[in-house]
């Protein structure tokens, strides 16, 4: 399937919103949406890590795991064509390790280069390693923009666009949710529903609203 | 705590989904039908039990073999070690599923590799298996796995029943029932889990 860039942005932010329609990153969505400030920080951190993680995992998949003519085994070690190893089954292990170490590196790098940015994002970065949105977008990119291990047309650009736009979509709903929950503190909610249960119901209503975007024609 | 108690606690008292609010992403995503829910529950339980055993064994081994100094340095990198163990078992599940249950594998899709980042599994490995011997770890894994599967099935039952009038793919409510399509769609998952959590809180408050 071919995607235009604009189409992909709209799809990732609204139609296939990461939280409300794909159910990725629900834990931070419920956990970090109590205050507006922290929601913005978390959203930015997730968008940032998602984009970089997608970039790195795409490169790894194309050049190491997939049995293509770009594979390092073919280019560097001159393995015969029919002996290029197909390592795509290692995807899960490799991706999660890369993401875990990447988050560590990003944390160290930001701390050194920009203390202000570190102050804003720092505390959220360790939480991100086990956030399924990051591994989710990496796996999703492979599922969508590779066919039988071969990158499709514009695979690389599409990957970056989808990762960044999905992060923006995540930030959007996180910030919306935080706004609602700050007001919800003052509302007279029935006692058993206070806290998490009402947050889920609010999320359900938000999801219904976002369902409306599914009717959008973005061809 | 007795062995039986280790097993039972995951099912209701410390149910990973309803009590600890862990592993929400797969819970919401695959609870569209009971078949999916049970498939996901079984896959997660397998990974949970295997990784609990492995982590517990590794920790016992490290304690026997390594010096105090060595144990300290292993302790620093234990989380990445756990993640690799879990990821290996998830890869096994991925391959077995796509070979023997292609339809299930298709409908669970991206959520099979994402078992790696299910916080229940890493949580149990770090919080329980790394501090306990093998047998309690196995029981803890099975108990938590069953608790997760039950929670998933409870949500799936409600969604499938209201959303399509079916249970296990059998039509229960008859032709005249007009399905509430919303329940099968994403909003249904949020609404059902929110109502369940509220109902459980209400039950708890009545008991006291």
Q: How do the helices and strands line up, and which of them pair or pack?
A:
The complex is a heterodimer of chains A (219) and B (208).
Chain A: H1 5-15, H2 26-31, H3 36-65, H4 72-75, H5 91-113, H6 115-121, H7 125-128, H8 132-145, E1 146-147, E2 150-151, H9 155-184, H10 196-211
Antiparallel strand pairs in A: 1-2
Chain B: H1 3-9, H2 24-30, H3 34-65, H4 68-76, H5 78-100, H6 102-108, H7 119-127, H8 134-164, E1 166-167, E2 170-171, H9 181-184, H10 186-207
Antiparallel strand pairs in B: 1-2
What would you note in describing this structure?
The complex is a heterodimer of chains A (219) and B (208). Chain A has one domain. In chain A, strand 1 and strand 2 (150-151) form a beta hairpin. The mean pLDDT of chain A is 87. The longest helix of chain A has 30 residues, at 36-65. Chain A has helices at 5-15, 26-31, 36-65, 72-75, 91-113, 115-121, 125-128, 132-145, 155-184, 196-211, and strands at residues 146-147, 150-151. With 219 residues, chain A is mostly helical. Chain B is mainly α and 208 residues long. Chain B has one domain. Chain B is 73% helix and 2% strand. Chain B has a two-stranded antiparallel ribbon. In chain B, strand 1 and strand 2 form a beta hairpin. The model of chain B has no long low-confidence stretch (mean pLDDT 89). Chain A binds chain B through residues 20-27, 30, 89-93, 95-97, 100-101, 130-132, 134-136, 139-140, 143, 190-193, 196-201, 203-205, 207-208, 211, and chain B through 21-22, 24-26, 28-29, 80, 83-84, 87-88, 90-91, 94-95, 109-110, 113-114, 116-119, 122, 182, 185-191, 193-195, 197-199, 201-202, 205.
């Amino acid at each position: 399937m071919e995607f235009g860039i604009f189409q992909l942005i709209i799809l990732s932010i609204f139609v296939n919103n990461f939280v409300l329609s794909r159910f990725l990153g629900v834990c931070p969505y419920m956990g970090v949406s109590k205050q507006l400030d922290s929601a913005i920080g978390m959203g930015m951190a997730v968008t940032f890590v998602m984009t970089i993680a997608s970039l790195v995992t795409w490169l790894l998949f194309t050049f190491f795991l997939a049995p293509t003519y770009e594979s390092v085994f073919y280019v560097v070690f001159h393995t015969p064509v029919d002996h290029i190893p197909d390592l795509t089954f290692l995807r899960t292990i490799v991706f999660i390790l890369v993401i875990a170490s990447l988050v560590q590196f990003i944390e160290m790098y930001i701390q050194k280069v920009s203390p202000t940015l570190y102050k804003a994002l720092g505390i959220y970065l360790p939480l991100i390693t086990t956030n399924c949105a990051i591994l989710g977008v990496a796996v999703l990119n492979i599922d969508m923009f590779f066919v039988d291990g071969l990158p499709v047309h514009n695979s690389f650009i599409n990957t970056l666009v989808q990762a960044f736009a999905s992060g923006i979509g995540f930030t959007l709903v996180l910030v919306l949710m935080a706004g609602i929950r700050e007001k919800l503190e003052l509302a007279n909610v029935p006692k058993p529903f206070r806290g998490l249960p009402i947050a889920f119901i609010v999320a359900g209503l938000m999801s219904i609203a976002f369902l409306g975007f599914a009717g959008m024609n973005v061809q | 705590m007795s062995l039986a108690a280790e097993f039972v606690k995951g099912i209701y008292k410390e149910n990973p989904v309803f009590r600890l609010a862990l592993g929400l992403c797969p819970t919401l995503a695959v609870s569209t039908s009971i078949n999916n829910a049970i498939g996901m529950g079984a896959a997660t339980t397998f990974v949970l039990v295997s990784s609990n055993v492995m982590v517990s064994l590794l920790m016992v081994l490290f304690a026997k073999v390594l010096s105090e100094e060595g144990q300290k340095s292993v302790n620093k990198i234990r989380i990445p070690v756990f993640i690799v163990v879990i990821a290996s078992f998830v890869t096994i599940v991925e391959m077995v599923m796509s070979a023997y249950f292609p339809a299930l594998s298709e409908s669970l899709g991206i959520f099979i590799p994402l078992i790696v980042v299910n916080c229940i599994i890493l949580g149990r490995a770090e919080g329980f298996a790394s501090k306990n011997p093998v047998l309690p770890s196995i029981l803890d894994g099975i108990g938590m796995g069953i608790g997760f599967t039950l929670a998933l099935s409870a949500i799936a039952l409600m969604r499938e029943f209201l959303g399509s009038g079916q249970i296990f793919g059998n039509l229960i409510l008859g032709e005249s029932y007009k399905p509430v399509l919303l329940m099968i769609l994403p909003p249904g998952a949020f609404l059902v889990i929110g109502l369940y959590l509220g109902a459980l809180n209400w039950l708890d408050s009545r008991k006291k």
